Every structure is written in structure tokens, then in C-alpha cells.
Amino acid sequence: MMRFWSLGVLALAACGGGEEGAPLHPGPVSIAGTRPAEPRYAALTSASEAVLGVLPAEVVLPPEAVMSLSPPLAGRIVTWRVAVGDEVAPETPLATMATPDLADLAAALAEAERVSVARERALVVEREAMRQGLAAATEVQALEVQAAEARARRDALRAQLATRRALGAGKGEGAEAAGAWAWLSPVRGVVQRLELPVGASARPEEAALVVIAVDAARVRAHVPERWLARLPAEARGRFVPTGGGAVLEVTLVHRSPTLDATSRTQIHDFAGDARLEPGRSGRLELVGPAPAGALAVPPEALTRLEGVEVLFPERGDPIAVERVGRTADRVLVRSREPGRLEPGAQVAVDGVFLLKSRHVLGLDDAGDAP
After folding, report:
1. Whether residue 180 sits in one domain with residue 153
2. pLDDT tens readout for residues 244-263
3. Does residue 227 lie in a domain region?
4. Does position 364 have pLDDT exceeding 80, yes or no?
5. Which region, left, alpha or beta, applies to residue 52 given φ > 0 means left and ψ of -120 to 50 means alpha?
6. What tens digit of pLDDT does each residue of 89-101 get?
7. The pTM of the whole model exceeds 0.85
8. Residues 105, 90 share a domain
């Protein structure tokens, strides 16, 4: 035993333990100036809406958005005045058309106008001759019949030509040429495809080009059957595009009348004020009324204490809460302790870990060391 004691003394001596006044342990370390920043507080707000659910979604075009257009009159396509990808609006020239029978009709009208004027003049002359006793009444009557026939033919041709021009014939640039007229778009959209080449004959019953009404694009989501009962009649939501982009507020415009037998989902189509890009994918956040008494807080304000989520008020003990929903960037909560949490109450939103540590260690607000 003595031998082991001697070895211990020698070891201490070798470590400097034998020098007078040398400490065997380091002294206490000061932590002055290392205290974290003070917590930051913000006011709670009442919640009017909540996210009812999130679903994958895509931007689609309904079948009626794809429109096949044909000219109002049969004719030959002299030149296309639009190309694939061009946007068109009502009254935008689509093509210059040539319709031979339209030129024939105009020529026939011009001849009818000439004949009618000539017969009206002849009738005036014959009436004056009859007044002077130089012509018989029967001759005047015959000229009146001929003048009436000429007027009737002229008026019929005028009406026929006016009807065709009302359909688009004779309007716009190039309409002055014989039989040429501008085919004007009746709709708004983007040209997707030209079905006929220049020089081809186009008829009213045959599609000549395809236009897509891009304004009719919709955000489509497949809503599970179990969600349908909790969706409001006028469902709203937010479409968040994949890969970034502006978040679009949308409202329900159509829902399928039936459920898909395999997936047990129902198609819901939503539309917004901004133009949607067909084929774009993203997520749809369905929005509805918030639960009664729900308060909105940032997620970082919540922490767990003894198995229960709590908020740290500006003064007083932590307040136990329960989650009752969420918004796009807030968590909706209700107090488990009635009367302790009201709109406008200040709760910690930064430095929550510091407050939790003080509470667990039993420190006061000054943070004095034990």
C-alpha cells in the first residue's frame, strides 16, 4: 500500500502539484456578455379562413376551349394573315379569301342598278308625254311594270350582297379586289394550327384553322370523396405553381357531376383573374372558413413543453394550445386554458428556445445564474 502511495506522490510532483500556490483545477469561467438576444413578440390575430386541404393540380383546357373555325362563305384562301402562335381577337383578319360568285353577284347588282335607273328615267319621260297627250296610258302602265321589276331585282341583289358582307365578306384590307374579302375572327384565342394551305378551297362546313381560347384554361384537381362534405358550395383556393411563380387566387367554376369509380374522386375546375399556362402543374390549397375562435400564429412561435404545445406570452406562464388548422403561412390555434389567449395578445415569435430554457431551469426574467 505504501508503494502505491509513493507512486501517487511522485506523479503529482511530476505534474507540478508540488509547487506552492499552483491550482489543481481551473477557476470558474465568466459568461458575462454571452447572453442571447432578448425574445421578440408579436400580436395574435383572429383567423377568418383556413386551408382545408392540399391537392396536386394541373392547368388544363376544357374541350370547348379548342375551336375549329371555318369561313362564313366558300372561297379560295389567297393568303393567311395569321401564323401559328398568334393571338387573335374578334374582328382580327384571319385570311384574305377570294369568292368568284361574290364578284359575279357584285357585277349583277351593278347591272341591275343601271337597268333600274334607266327604266325610272324612261317612266318619267313617258308620263310627261301622256300628260301632253302624246302617249297612251297603256304604254305608261307597261313602263311602270318594267320599272317595278327592275327595282325588285336590284333590291334582291342588294339584300343578298348585304347578307354576305355581314358574314365577313367585303371587309378589311384587300376587299376592294374583285371577289376578295377579309375573313375576320369571331373569337379570342391563340392560333394552334392551320388546317389548309394557301390556294386551297375552304367551305363553311370544313375547319380551316384551330384556335385555342387560352383564357378558358382551368386549374384542375381531383377531390377525394371524403373531402366533399366539408367543402363549401363556393369553394376557393390558391394555386401554387411548381418551380416558383405567382400564387393565383382561384374560385370553383365547374365540378364533375359524377365520381370516378376507381379513384373515388371528383373533378373540380378553378379559374382566376390571371392567365394560366396550359400544362403547368402545382398544388391547390383549398380554402374555407376558419374554426370559431381560431387565432393565427407563426409556426416558430410554437414549442412543446411536457408533451403539449405552448405559446410564451409577454408576461406570465406559458399557455397550452391546440392546433385547429392552418393558413398559407400561419398555424391556427385555440387556447386550452379559457380566457388566457385573445386577439391582440403579445406572444414570443423569436427567442422561444431561450424562454423555454429559462422556464425549465426555473430562472427569472433577469436570467441570474443559480
Report:
1. no
2. 888 999 999 999 999 999 99
3. yes
4. no
5. alpha
6. 999 999 998 877 6
7. no
8. no
